[in-house]
Amino acid sequence: MDVISYLDEKGIKYELQGSEAILTCPNCNKNKLYVNIETLLYHCFRCETLDETNAFAKGHFSTIQRHYGDILDISPATSISTTSNQKEVNFTDLVERYHHNLLKTKTALKYLFDRGRSIESIKQFKLGYTTRYKDEWIVIPSYEDNVPKLLKLRNISKEPSNEKYIREKGSKSILFNGDVINEYENIIITEGEFDAMALIEAGFPNVVGTTGGAGTLLPEWYDKLLYVQKIIVCFDSDKVGQKAARDVWAKRLGTGRVWNLMLPDNEDIDSFLLKNSKEDFENLLNEVKQFKVDGISSLKDTLYDMYKISNEEGEEEVFKLPWDCINKLVDGGLHRSRLTVVGGVPGVGKSSYCLQICYYFAKTYDLPCLYFCLEMPKTSLAVKIIQLENDITKNEIRYGDALIYATQIEELPIYFGYDSRITPEKFFMTMEECVRRYGIELFVFDNLQLCIRSDKESDISKASKIFKQITMDLNIMGILISQPRKMNNDSNITYDILKGSSSIPADADEVLLLHRLRAQGTNTDTSFSPETYVIADKERFSGGGRRVLKMVGEKSRFDEFTKDENKEEK
């Protein structure tokens, strides 16, 4: 939601002057708060004068939305039941040792000279050299508050036996040259450390380099860059670099603040500066462009977008679910900008089904996922993730081993959310912040009926439209869990059982119903049979149908039946 729409919806009075909205500051109650409607940055002249460290002195518009309770706090999966007590490592001694080794090693120096590094810059950046795992490595230190907290090793062996890059154990994921962010209003972002060094050597000190690849924007990096007025992304001109520039950096940091510097084809910064002057690069800086604002597109732009979202084979990018048989029902898997509704009676396994998708997407595709749940506490959700990671039952989990579990899943980009006061509108604004800060690509909302307790179908219709709008506006995948209005139904079900059934299918791209028959007999350990029918009762892009999965209840997951089990798909 843009600034003006938000202020109008909240009934907050403002005066519009050019690109700034002037309103009363919630902190000092003076009409001195200026919000840039393009960059979403604000500053209050009154608060800034009294205390420049005050949150309302300057910041991002999301702070104001959070102040009014419209953006909710989201927790990473590993922070639910544990707090890491690991101390950050200071690599100063190692940096000195590796740097001393480098200055005595001709092959390492030659490699750096060939890359355009001078002896002065080698000393300035304290580059180092070491041998490890039968390979030779250039050591690149990155600093935070002038302390080296990340050592990245670049393999320079002629016949390497290991990966191209590794890290020193205990390294913290920080930006290269990140300490300069607080010193400049304009920052240049490069695709790596060597590109950043090349620009700094050429006389551009306001440069930081990514240390995890072009497509990596960690939440802590986002926080540091949040208040920069202008961010110039200078990535390689290939498909990977440009996709990251637009779909990660501009999408999350804001098209109003992010500008794109296009290098000539087949060039990176290193190669460009080896052949061109500082003035040539300044000319490129003068030609930077903002990414186009979404909403209105020409046919040419639309066809370009089709190419942009395609995979290497030229087909639309699809994220397969963990069950091959289900992928056949849903157009190959999940797609961005589509809303999937998952319905079924209580206890059938809807939450486990959706959590398994989140776990699979985080594990397989490294896609950040948000599970917003109104039915279970976050610790219960974390337990299910631990079960999936370790293939164990709930009874096998020991809470005293929480720190061990944390080390197992700490790299999984899974986030949890809960707030009893949530509304679809608040969830929309929260999702905007989650996409910006965490890069969320898939959300699960569990469930619609706990959010909309009204019996009016118009209220459910309005809510389902908002959830669909979230997927469209933010270009992400969405799963909405829906409860039925009918209970204890053992017949073949359709989406008519869902509360608000006339509006939900209209907004959803697909409706998946989970159906399990009641368990028979007197001595059973479960209310339902493990055989779970997944019914695609509405499919906008494929024919739909039904398949059968096996619910492994004690491990909170669904499996496909094997050929040996000879389970027919009915």
3D architecture notes:
The structure is a single chain. The strands form four sheets. Strands 6-18-17-19-20-16-21-22-23-24 form a ten-stranded mixed beta sheet. A five-stranded antiparallel beta sheet has the order 1-2-3-4-5. It has a five-stranded mixed beta sheet with strand order 12-11-13-14-15, sandwiched between helices. The longest helix is centred in the C-terminal third of the chain and has 18 residues, at about 455-475. It has three domains: about 5-65, DNA Primase, Chain A (Alpha-Beta Complex), CATH 3.90.580.10; about 90-290, Dna Topoisomerase Vi A Subunit, Chain: A, domain 2 (3-Layer(aba) Sandwich), CATH 3.40.1360.10; about 325-560, 3-Layer(aba) Sandwich (Rossmann fold). The mean pLDDT is about 90. Helix content is about 35%, strand content about 20%. By secondary structure, the chain is α/β, with parallel strands linked by helices.
